[in-house]
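In the design runs reported in the main text, the only information available to the sequence generator was the tokenized backbone. The following block is the verbatim input for one such run; it is reproduced so that readers can re-run the procedure and compare outputs position by position.
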């Protein structure tokens, strides 16, 4: 684990954050300065971070254009009917403007009632004794309301159901981790309580590093990976997420072994794919 920590620290230190942000949904959140706007834009960006990255950014931008320069202020002034009109005809994968309007209307209500979405989340976190799964599930209940359509349930997923809930967990990471040019540090919750957002890239690379041997990207898989990362940094276990995810997104860690890319990867000597290939080559040489 000491060697994995060294290699992951090297990966983070060598990351061109400015370059990677250009293709990441969180870059759109940083275009807004007011915390209340960042909460709303973060919710939209994380919620639509599904499928092709370029298509997701286009969809996020379309919603932001519909809301105008002050998204948080637009929600109570538009109301549910106004949001539905503004987002009429919007689609992104299985989501429609109707789904987005409902979520945003309820997000605006949380801000009006609690002062911020973060304040509502903190109440849930305290009430659930710091159980991230339950506190996020309660926040999801708030944002989903009584909606029962497949699109609404997928847009705001329920951690109680057992899936990794990557987009909801990603939103929590953006809002909770200290402001570092990537995450925003808006919600007063300990980063130690966070879970790593598990997508196909994080899952595959984590398996390669021996952080999990689970074959599906479930909530249990996210817990297992985070537990391993917590050995590396108990106070901020998911600080490696952005660098690891973009290692996969950039295809610098391809889904199949690439001798050239793998040879120059800082993680190669702690990666099972590289090690197994080296062992195989050594056997052939003998």
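Verbatim output:
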């Amino acid at each position: 684990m000491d060697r994995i920590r060294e290699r992951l620290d090297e990966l983070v230190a060598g990351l061109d954050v400015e370059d990677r942000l250009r293709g990441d949904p969180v870059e759109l959140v940083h275009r807004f300065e007011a915390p209340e706007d960042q909460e709303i834009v973060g919710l939209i960006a994380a919620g639509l971070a599904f499928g092709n990255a370029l298509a997701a950014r286009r969809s996020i931008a379309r919603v932001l254009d519909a809301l105008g320069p002050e998204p948080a202020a637009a929600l109570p002034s538009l109301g549910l009917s106004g949001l539905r009109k503004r987002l009429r005809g919007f689609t992104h994968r299985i989501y429609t403007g109707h789904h987005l309007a409902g979520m945003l209307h309820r997000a605006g209500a949380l801000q009006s009632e609690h002062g911020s979405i973060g304040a509502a989340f903190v109440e849930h976190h305290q009430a659930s004794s710091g159980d991230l799964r339950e506190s996020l599930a309660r926040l999801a209940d708030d944002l989903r309301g009584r909606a029962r359509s497949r699109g609404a349930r997928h847009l705001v997923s329920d951690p109680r159901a057992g899936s990794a809930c990557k987009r909801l967990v990603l939103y929590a990471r953006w809002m909770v981790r200290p402001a570092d040019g990537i995450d925003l540090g808006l919600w007063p919750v300990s980063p130690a309580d966070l879970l790593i957002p598990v997508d196909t890239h994080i899952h595959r690379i984590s398996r390669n590093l021996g952080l999990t041997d689970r074959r599906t990207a479930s909530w249990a898989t996210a817990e297992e990976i985070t537990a391993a990362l917590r050995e590396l940094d108990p106070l901020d276990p998911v600080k490696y997420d952005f660098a690891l995810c973009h290692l996969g997104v950039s295809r610098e860690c391809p889904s199949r072994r690439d001798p050239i890319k793998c040879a120059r990867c800082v993680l190669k000597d702690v990666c099972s794919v590289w090690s197994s290939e080296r062992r195989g080559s050594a056997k052939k040489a003998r």
